[in-house]
Design goal:
Layout lengths: L3 H14 L5 E6 L18 H8 L4 E7 L2 E6 L3 E6 L4 E6 L1 E3 L10 E3 L14 E7 L4 E6 L5 E6 H4 L18 H8 L7 H5 L10 H10 L13 H20 L41 E6 L2 E6 L5
Antiparallel strand pairs: 1-8, 2-3, 3-4, 4-10, 5-9, 6-7, 8-9, 11-12
Helix pairs in contact: 1-7, 6-7
């Protein structure tokens, strides 16, 4: 699932191309009758409501909150997009084509040499046609992503009110960090770090990496972490997230940026998906292992992580 660095990368890209453009048309085939899809763009009865507040609207700007992408419109509404497990947004010039190389893809890039043609970019399920005749498209092979429209002035006190603070904000200090995490003193530290109500934006990849960098086992309880370890964990959290942003996100799986290009953070993994490989820590002879922690896979070195 795209985490803070991937969503930040997407938002940074969209902010460069979307402001002042008008949404002229919306297409989707993302329909679902699941109760989870109710009141989202996947709900056929919700779609007319969505179009009412999105069509013909000028885009003001694009922001991020936790793992949510917020596209603010001139009429006082905001499109709220969560990419979930396999979703990503791309921007370019597309055309409809029911048959492409013998396979049924309804929208394809006009340019045959564009990175938008990457096989991970072909699962187009939502298309916004823009006033400059380019398109904003949502690619999601598993169709888990969600898109809704909300009033901008109530968004942060309503739909997003449950979210914890942003870990890279200047006001978020070591003391804030420690106080937030200690709200769950007897849960595994990895699980707490991924809890969006505690801290916003951290997921499976970056929690593994920051815990390894701070030499803390993912199964440790926050109440048992020492003061010196808190300092290193806070520093590691900021370092890992910033590094993820610097390298354009992690594309070990489906994630691509708005141009259809891969990020490069997967080349910098210390532990994530490196099961049975040697630990990179200087002087450590440990091997990376994988273990379920709170229902999620944790990757770590049992030798240098304590």
């Amino acid at each position: 699932m795209p985490e803070l660095p991937e969503v930040h990368t997407t938002v940074t890209g969209l902010q460069k191309v979307l402001p002042k453009l008008i949404i002229k048309d919306i297409w989707t085939d993302m329909w679902s009758s699941s109760t989870i899809a109710k009141n989202t763009i996947k709900d056929r009865s919700y779609f007319p409501y969505f179009k009412k507040y999105v069509l013909s609207q000028k885009i003001l700007n694009v922001e991020r909150r936790a793992k949510y992408i917020l596209i603010n419109l001139e009429n006082g509404f905001t499109m709220v997009i969560h990419m979930k497990m396999t979703g990503h947004l791309m921007y370019g010039n597309y055309r409809e084509d029911k048959k492409y190389n013998g396979r049924e893809w309804s929208w394809i890039p006009v340019s045959k040499t564009s990175p938008l043609n990457d096989k991970y970019n072909r699962h187009i399920h939502v298309v916004f046609t823009l006033s400059n005749k380019d398109h904003l498209v949502f690619c999601d092979s598993r169709k888990f992503g969600t898109i809704v429209v909300q009033k901008t002035n109530t968004l942060h006190t309503d739909k997003l009110s449950h979210l914890g603070p942003e870990p890279l904000e200047k006001f978020f200090t070591l003391n804030n960090f420690k106080e937030r995490v200690l709200k769950s003193p007897t849960r595994a530290i990895k699980t707490v770090l991924m809890d969006q109500k505690i801290i916003a934006g951290i997921g499976n990849i970056y929690s593994d990496e920051m815990l390894h960098l701070s030499h803390i086992l993912p199964t440790r309880f926050p109440k048992n972490i020492k003061d010196s370890e808190w300092k290193l964990l806070f520093k590691s959290m900021r370092e890992v997230l910033k590094k993820g942003i610097d390298f354009g996100g992690d594309s070990m799986s489906d994630y691509r940026n708005i141009e259809g290009l891969r990020g490069n953070f997967q080349k910098k993994h210390l532990v994530y998906l490196r099961t049975k490989e040697k630990c990179f820590t200087k002087g450590c002879k440990g091997i990376i292992i994988k273990k379920k922690v709170g229902g999620r896979s944790a990757h770590f070195c049992s030798v240098c992580q304590k």
